[in-house]
Write a structure and sequence with these properties.
This protein is mainly beta and about 375 residues long. It has a domain at about 255-380: Jelly Rolls. Helix content is about 5%, strand content about 40%. The protein contains two helices and 29 strands. It has helices at about 340-345, 365-370; strands at about 5, 25-30, 40-45, 55-60, 75, 90-95, 100-105, 115, 120-125, 130-135, 135-140, 145-150, 155-160, 165-170, 200, 210-220, 225-230, 235-240, 245-250, 270, 275-280, 285, 300, 305-310, 325-330, 335, 350, 350-360, 365. Strands 15-19-12-9-14-7-6-29 form an eight-stranded antiparallel sheet. A seven-stranded mixed sheet has the order 4-17-16-8-13-10-11, with no helix packed on it. A hairpin with a 7-residue loop joins strand 2 (about 25-30) and strand 3. It is globular, with a radius of gyration of 22 Å. About 35% of the residues are buried. The mean pLDDT is about 95.
């Protein structure tokens, strides 16, 4: 991302910066990839290393089903159980060593703080409104927003609504932007389907001056660890840099179209280690006089394709539902359902919204995913 700043900080980094009482603020470098990646420098009123006590928490590593068969899957998720907060409501459905994909229908607000101690996180807001309060400031979210949380960011999610639905993924590698969209200096170029103006960055309030006991639940190496601090974790007076949370709305993704059907990479929004994230949004169809707008059949030889259906009429699929997930694993072909190719010819536009996660290593299903699976889906291509 580009340079951003919020609050107060000294003109020169690594120099004295004093509180009104004469004591020094605590300078804190928040960086990725050691000292060679993007970073921000924040200034704490109270040292962030002051911890009252630490306790070991629950094991939260996902477990794969051992007897899974190679076939296509349709997870019917519309009516999954509601309850819990933005963290405790998460249910893992698919995972590998690069990404963990989770579903969430929270109804409560968090009475603690949370930090993913090793992985970037992103969640797509399907239903609900609220805000994420972090040590970098506040981000207000609404439906169709992608909310990015860098690893080791302390945050708390507050909902204004009771009906909420999130698609969440935990990324072992950094979540970035496709390099073909960026100049050598990191600016979004004219061929990019979005640009800097489309991002929402943290805003005030930033600093909370409170004393007491504040719990932070930290996820690290597949376990939760409970930390209690004697001061509010959001006690940052100011910060600046290139590493911080942000929001991008799917509705600000500008689709790339052509005379004939365009391949999925034109929908790519984010890039990560061994997987990509794409946004399918309403768009004009292909305009060659003999164009077939429906996608052609293809074999996912080197990737697993996961589609989360958000809203609208997905023109190449029959029988999928609101909030459904289809998982087309590598090694076997898939394509449009019978009848959808002919039906697409002559159409001028589509009104579909979907999130696609394509992984370059096989995904494993959890028992929770098995319970949501439609056993008839693998045969849905038979006329």
């Amino acid at each position: 991302m580009y340079y951003h700043k919020l609050g107060k900080f000294p003109q020169k980094r690594h120099t004295q910066f004093r509180r009104p009482d004469g004591e020094l603020y605590t300078e804190h470098l928040f960086g990725a990839e050691g000292f060679s990646g993007n970073s921000s420098i924040m200034y704490h009123h109270t040292e962030p290393t002051q911890v009252l006590r630490v306790e070991l928490g629950a094991d939260v590593k996902p477990v794969a089903v051992s007897d899974d068969v190679l076939r296509h899957h349709h997870l019917v998720t519309k009516d999954i159980d509601e309850g819990g907060d933005a963290i405790t409501s998460r249910k893992t459905v698919l995972f590998n060593n690069d990404v963990e994909i989770m579903l969430s229908r929270p109804t409560e607000n968090m009475n603690y703080f949370y930090k993913n101690g090793e992985h970037d996180e992103m969640f797509f807001v399907h239903e609900g409104e609220g805000y994420v309060q972090t040590m970098f400031g506040r981000l207000e979210f609404k439906p169709f927003d992608y909310v990015y949380i860098p690893r080791a960011t302390i945050y708390q999610v507050v909902f204004h609504t009771k009906k909420n639905r999130l698609l969440v993924w935990d990324s072992t590698g950094p979540i970035e932007f496709p390099k073909r969209y960026l100049s050598d200096m990191g600016q979004f170029m004219e061929n990019s389907p979005f640009c800097e103006r489309d991002f929402r960055l943290p805003t005030e309030p930033l600093y909370f001056e409170e004393q007491g006991e504040f719990e932070i639940r930290i996820k690290k190496l597949g376990r939760l660890h409970h930390y209690w601090m004697n001061h509010h974790p959001f006690n940052v007076i100011g910060w600046d840099g290139y590493l911080y949370p942000w929001i991008f709305s799917m509705k600000d993704f500008e689709p790339i179209t052509g005379r004939v059907h365009q391949p999925p990479p034109v929908h790519q929004t984010f890039n990560a280690h061994n997987y990509v994230v794409c946004s399918f949004v309403p768009r004009k169809y292909d305009y060659h006089p003999l164009a077939i707008p429906a996608p052609y059949a293809h074999s996912n030889v080197d990737s697993d394709e996961v589609l989360y259906y958000v809203e609208g009429d997905f023109m190449s699929r029959k029988g999928v539902h609101y909030a459904s997930i289809t998982h087309h694993p590598g090694g076997i072909p898939h394509g449009p359902h019978p009848g959808t190719v002919k039906k697409s010819i002559g159409k001028e536009a589509t009104n579909e919204w979907a999130v696609m996660i394509d992984t370059f290593k096989p995904l494993f299903r959890t028992k929770y995913a098995v319970d949501l699976d439609d056993p008839k889906y693998p045969h849905s291509w038979v006329e």
